[in-house]
Design brief:
There is one protein chain. This protein is mainly β. Helix content is 0%, strand content 56%. Strand 3 and strand 4 form a beta hairpin. The N and C termini lie far apart (23 Å).
């Protein structure tokens, strides 16, 4: 099940993305803002910022926890 990332009071936008903060170590599967392809990022340490602009985080293949989308 994917977790879609939305701005408050708005629907998804194909041109906007969000950076991620990963609080608990693991892997994440994301869809970048500029693509529709899933990108798997592996072995992300806890308390990491991911500078990739993403529009979706997939629960499949995501083991990291405490993920926060940042604008």
């Amino acid at each position: 099940k994917p977790y879609q990332i939305y701005r408050a009071n708005a629907g998804p936008s194909d041109s906007e993305g969000f950076s991620l903060f990963v609080g608990g170590a693991g892997n994440i599967a994301v869809v970048p803002a500029s693509s529709d392809q899933v990108v798997k990022l592996e072995n992300i340490p806890d308390s990491s910022f991911i500078p990739l602009q993403v529009k979706r985080v997939n629960s499949t293949d995501t083991t990291a926890t405490k993920i926060i989308a940042l604008r």
